[in-house]
Specification:
With 84 residues, this protein is of the alpha+beta class. The chain has helices at 35-42, 46-54, 71-82; strands at residues 4-7, 10-13, 32-33, 61-63, 66-70.
Length: 84
């Protein structure tokens, strides 16, 4: 499934965005990744990521038995913790 965004009232597919356009936090990361990559990006252990998912602090989804975390979920997690 292709992710979408809107800009100026116009629907924009993320594949239409030039790769050199600034994307903010984790811009060069894929749109979804496993717990190991999330841990690497945050500089924590895989167990910390699992614990935050189990506590409901970090959104995730399953593909079969595998856990995946979207880039947006990780960005939201970081922004929620910035003020804490």
């Amino acid at each position: 499934m292709e992710q979408m965004a809107t800009t100026g009232g116009r629907l924009l597919y993320l594949t239409d965005v030039p790769p050199d356009q600034p994307g903010g936090l984790f811009a060069d990361a894929p749109d979804a990744f496993d717990m190991n990559k999330a841990a690497e990006l945050l500089g924590v252990t895989r167990q910390t990521i699992k614990r935050e998912i189990d506590r409901g602090n970090l959104r995730s989804f399953h593909v079969g038995a595998r856990v995946r975390i979207t880039k947006q979920a990780l960005v939201d997690y970081v922004h929620e913790r910035e003020g804490a």
